[in-house]
Amino acid sequence: MSLRPMGLPPVPEQTVRVARAAFPQESLAIRVRDRLGEVFTDEPFAEAFGVRGAPGLSPGMLSLVTVLQFAENLTDRQAAAMAIRAIDWKYALGLELTDTGFDHSVLPRFRARLVGNGMERVVFDRLLEHCVDAGLVAAGGKQRTDSTHVVSAVRDLNRLELAGESVRAALEALSAAAPDWLARAVDVPEFAHRYGPRVDSWKLPGSKVKRDQLSQVYGQDALRLCRAVWSPDAPAWLREIGAVDIMRQVLVQTYTVRTSSRGKEVVSKREADEDGVPPGHLRLASPYDPDARWSAKGDDLFWLGYKVHLTESCDNTPPEAEAEARGLPKLITDVTTTLSTVPDVKATAPIQQQLADRGLPPAEHYLDSGYPSAELIEAARSRGTVMVTPVLLDRSAQAKSHTGYDKSAFRIDWKARQVRCPQGNTSTGWHPVRQRERDAIVVEFAKTDCQACPVRPECTSARRGNRMLTLYPEHLHTALAAARTEQKTKTWKDKYALRAGVEGTINQALDITGIRRARYRGLPKVRLQHAFSATAINVVRLDAHWTEHPLDRSRTSNLTRLSYRLTA
Fold first, then answer.
1. CA of 124: how far to CAs of 67, 132, 334, 518, 521, in Å?
2. What is the tally of helices (H) and strands (E) in the chain?
């Protein structure tokens, strides 16, 4: 399929007349075409299409269809139908009223082409560039970030179901790719009887003994199939089939292979206490989505899927122009999707770097306590960004008890490289080290001083008998101490209240685009979904800015409209 850059075609005269008559007050689709038509061009997609072959549909047009699809939370079939029967969509796409549109299968192929060429964020970035040129968003000012969970598009499986379904998925792939080889390698009728139906289509055995037996059968079948695929006479390309590699990983993560005292090979399920299991960020949870991971937040939230971070402007201009900032829309300036097991603190630096790459670094960045660290706060400050965020307090046993001597009770002499304890004793050891890929300083007090100290129980309970402190380097320690002191003041708490508005943005994204449920499988496609979701939210907010009518009264409650108005 080839690309001949044309962009959105001109709107036919008949379509203009009918659309203006049918929508005297216009609609979102009509306003998007009139005001944002230049965003949806073909040139940014040129690398994803060839120059030879039959000409395909305009990627600029398909990207506009996708944005409108997410703005109205439609399926592919519904979006394709809207391009046929909705007059305002025909206006937006520049189609004749008699145009028959396109088949819905065009949309997933378009998304696959974007993902395959790393163009998930092209439309989002182009819309932001347009907003920057229009003066609707700028570097400096204030931005805020928060994350929410995303449930994957696959069924939750327990370990037994995962073992069986991974074998079934591999057999399905091999049956389609190499049926003759598979017929020679395994007993097809036996495997078809066991793996023909999906694991979730029948009830698993109720007794533990029978479940263990079934688990062993799944493990033996997976091992047999792996040995057949990796045998010297098997085609090497079979090992590159995704489902086969996933089955191999599930086999390694779920089972152990031992030789009994009688010399018999035994395949048994891994036990966490005896054999160990992979850490959560490596453990596969589905043969159909290798990127989905189980994760938990607190005691109430436990999900299989991903995590998305949304950043929005909450004061689009530098402080000296705050008086002119009234009336500007709050726009999403970054969307980052990660595995569910990635902690928020690992996303902070990438988010700030992406904002800087777009020329939109904030002067103040509002985040919750999951995002900061001493290193990140200092690094952001060196780039001109102040992180307004509650840093974690000292979590040592002494600080938690409120009766012991925490780090703040010790006086540090950085030049002399010594620390004096509350009882007047001086440290005897100062050891620069690397801990968890970070620079740190371990300070040690003499055992003779600590063992004779009258307040030793309030200072340390270590078996070695002496107190030890782990400190950040001086510049980080000072910055962290200053941040902890500042966040206790009322002024800082009143200022930090601005961060709460991003919760409304997440709710709006959930209500409009269903952002908490993945439409597609695999991290790259989920990233594409969230990029288009963020683009759709920005379009909705721009439309509210243009019309000064935040939401349609007939479809939204007064309370919901108030919530959106306060955040948008």
1. 10, 12, 9, 18, 21
2. 22, 13
Alpha carbon distance 471, 542 (integer Å): 48
* 446/452 Cα distance (integer angstroms): 10
Question: How confident is the model over 499-558, as pLDDT tens digits?
Answer: 999 999 999 999 999 999 999 999 999 999 999 999 999 999 999 999 886 544 445 678
Query: What is the rounded distance in angstroms from the CA atom of residue 309 to the CA atom of residue 354?
Result: 12
Please, are residues 255 and 265 in contact by the beta-carbon 8 Å criterion?
no
Q: What is the pTM of this model?
A: 0.89
Q: Which of 169, 159, 172, 192 is nearest to 246 (CA)?
A: 169
Show the tokens assigned to 109: 């192929």
> What are the tokens at 438?
């970070």
Q: Which two tokens stand for residue 311?
A: 């950043």
Helix, strand, coil percentages for the chain (3-state, nearest 5):
50, 15, 35
**Which residue, 216, 168, 213, 227, is CA-closest to 195?**
168
How far is the CA of 532 from the CAs of 72, 162, 564, in angstroms?
Answer: 12, 31, 20
Start-to-end CA distance of the chain, whole Å, equals 41
Confidence check: pLDDT of 228 > 70 = yes
d(CA 151, CA 294): 10
